[in-house]
Amino acid sequence: MRFITHIIFLFCLTSCAVGPLVSHESARTVGKSNHELAGGYGNAGLALKWNYGLSDNFDLGVQLESLSLGLRAKYSFLNMKEGWSFATAGGLGSSVGGKHYYVDLMTSYFSGKWEPYTTLRAVHVKTDPVEFNDEDTGMLNFTVDRIHYNYGQLMLGSRFWFTQKFFFSGEASTIFAISGFNSDSNLLLNAALGYRF
Q1: Are 182 and 36 in contact (CB under 8 A)?
Q2: What would the DSSP string read from start to end of 45-83?
Q3: Which domains are present in the chain?
Q4: pTM for this one?
Q5: Interval 144-166: pLDDT, tens
Q6: DSSP labels for the chain?
Q7: What is the DSSP pairing of strand 69-78 with strand 58-65?
Q8: Edge to edge, what strands does the sheet with 181-184 contain?
Q9: CB 53 within 8 A of CB 59
Q10: Distances in Å between the alpha carbon of 79 and those of 48, 55, 62, 82, 179?
Q11: Beta strand pairing call for 130-132 and 83-95
Q12: pLDDT, average across residues 87-96
């Protein structure tokens, strides 16, 4: 039954554009000429990411989710192998029904095998007005009453590094209205596996 609820939720949302709903990313970059692939699933749907290190502190990537596709860039202004790292990221893309762009502020702390992270995201979307109730989606209540709207998202998660190349990421996030968007009951839980090479 839960799988059917997810399908109905995703079907309803495809007529409304949103930005990416998951991060699964720490503030550390992947390193010059390195790649990182991650794939996950949760109540925000399927998420796939690829990042490439253009330099030691700058990554360029692609993010594909059930509801959006986009390009992203991340610059880590404090990029530590152990301890605290801080970064900013931004992206743009499209989804069925509209376009989006966003900016992230990110922090993470790497110690041993654990790397907890926090991301604060601000998203601007252009789409058609729409309203979904909990009865429609089974999970989220939100109303979009303008062609342009803005929302924020707070993500808390952690990576667990099995080896220096393989990791598991668990993440929880919540969406909050900035303008033209109303939301409640919006806890998103997601998990991913990743590989860095």
Answers
A1: no
A2: EEEEEEEEESSSSEEEEEEEESS-EEEEEEEEEE--SSE
A3: 2-196 (2.40.160)
A4: 0.82
A5: 666 788 999 999 999 999 999 99
A6: -HHHHHHHHHHHHTTS----------SS---TT-EEEEEEEETTEEEEEEEEESSSSEEEEEEEESS-EEEEEEEEEE--SSEEEEEEEEEEEEETTEEEEEEEEEEEEEBTTEEEEEEEEEEEEE---EEE-HHHHSS-EEEE-SSEEEEEEEEEEEEEESSSSEEEEEEEEEEEEEESEEEES-EEEEEEEEEE-
A7: antiparallel
A8: 130-132, 141-144, 181-184
A9: yes
A10: 24, 12, 21, 9, 33
A11: unpaired
A12: 91
- Identity of residue 168: F
For 63, the token pair is 């993010």
What is the length of the chain? 197
Token pair 């949760």 in the structure block, residue: 42
Per the structure block, which two tokens stand in for 139? Answer: 């999970």
